[in-house]
Amino acid sequence: MSAAEASTQRDSFGALETHLRARRESGAKLLVPYVTGGYQGWQRAVEAAAAAGADAIEIGVPFSDPVMDGPVIQQASTAALADGATPASVLEEARELDTGVPHAVMTYYNLCHHQGHERFASALLDAGVCAAILPDLPYVEAGPWLEAAAETGLEAILLAAPTTPEHRLADLCGASRGFVYAVGLLGVTGERSALARTATEIAARCLAVTDRPVLTGVGIGSPSQAVEACEVSDGVIIGSAVVRTLMSDGPEAVGELVASYRTALDHG
Amino acid sequence: MAAETDGHTPGSRSVMGEPTPSSRSVMGEPTTDGRFGEFGGRFVPETLVAACEELEAAFREAWADPAFVAEFETTLRDYGGRPSPLTECRNLSSQLGVRLLVKREDLNHTGSHKINNVIGQALLAQRMGKTRLVAETGAGQHGVATATAAALLGMECKVYMGAVDVDRQALNVFRMRLLGSEVESVQSGSRTLKDAVNEALRDWVATVENTHYCLGSVMGPHPYPWMVRTFHHVLGDEAAAQCKDLTGGDPDVVVACVGGGSNAAGIFSGFADGDARLVGVEPAGGAAVGRGVPGVVHGMTSYLMQDEVGQVMEAESISAGLDYPGVGPEHAYLAAIGRAEYPSVTDAEVVEAFTLMSRAEGIIPALECAHALAWIVRAAPDMQGQTVLMNLSGRGDKDVDQMMDVLGMHGIVS
Question: Does residue A254 lie in a domain region?
């Protein structure tokens, strides 16, 4: 799909993108925490994160082979699966959430493929989820999924990487819905001691070819790194830092963590 | 026979997709988006898409360069020991009532067919300017082969191996370390081959600029299934010529074990356009074709053992090299179109075949290949008088420690 086709395919933006655009226009930097669904206390963690100023929530649906995730999220996924978490149980619990902000699901493509694109998208929408991120389904393979998601009204978020060639980037950003997920570094999810140079480079490259919100994720592990990333980017996704806090200090501590990012982004 | 290693038969070049009539081979080039029928593709994180494209371009360019092909073939001959012989197993033949021919990939340097692919990929990586190799390994044969190639070419090497396999293949772990490679014991998931693949992919996502992922089977994202099979095509070509010399034609049946399926792909590719029956033997506890449904993991669409919601199941087999819940996409395709069949055998049958071959022929097979023989033993009553070619893809030295426990326990060997 070309960028032109993609931009004419939908006249209006979905719930997630509408919300993020409005927040961006109000001058805010966007903050999207990730929580592993099915992990003990995950619903309270989501509510605490929303109350602490998250603009949207990413809910992880645990998969047996999370190839894009580092040790922290792997550990949480494994624990959730061992506790019996399934895509259906996580979505059932997600349906019970009332956070006031949009929810997106992050999981791996086989769970979508196994259920069938349309049924998977519909199940998400039924659970009050408005968008999905499938990190092992790259743009070059995403055609059928993008079509099915558009048909059902689910926002399919695509990832752009530092290695994405220029000739593909505009089309990719054009085809993404909700926001563009700019992968901040060459690597899997996890906190790093410093923000990678690639984080601001990829965000700048994306923003040069799209007016869609661009959020940077992977490798952001402190409020000051989030502020640094947002010197270019529209916002950040924080995953491993949130999940590590959930695992070590429980759901209420997640609220405090997210509040520290919110404060830094609002005043940093 | 010797001519087969330095010449390009039309068949051997056809798999490279040259615009020849034979490029419409049953085992020809995949589509431009890496599909064999509905299987294959490039389902990797966006970070790796460009690396796969770069690899595909480099492979096409290198394989069209006679100097590269000559270096590959010379290295396989002078370093790897090719061509490998074809052995007529007279004792087993008379016991089973079939004419059993065995392709001796166990006699290659490092003890298995894996060296073919590894030499090809390491030379290609070097040509691409990469300085580091990462690999996954199950039984350790691919890890040892990769460590060997890294030592030969002066490259850095890290091998990921599931913790369960590290325990049951201690000899190969030591060999890899002796060869100068780092071996990381993978503690995630089922701690076997599939988790080693995940960990190697995670490494590659982070190191793609200087690192080549030396994938060990006909699996993963395009171009790996096609490229790995192409590097193993030599064994199928050799076997076809050797069978012709010995028997005047193709065998009736070609049999190989299948985990990811690289040795089977190599030998099948020598016969796929003929009439021989092609049989890939899976372990009962890892029967991706037999029990799997289409799924997507490790970069490819293929048959995959998964639960009712799509979580990937853990394979369980006596052989670490076949403990894989998926299978290469071209095998899924060959099964779907009915060109090859994929029965499975139990661990008990495998143990019996392992002992049988050792005693009847004086050849200790790798447990993986004992799967192929186990099926031949079972199916022999229906194949009386037929010529059966089996790919003996590796030697059993690595398994003797494990088998001392198994056989000692059953009182077969005291």
Answer: yes
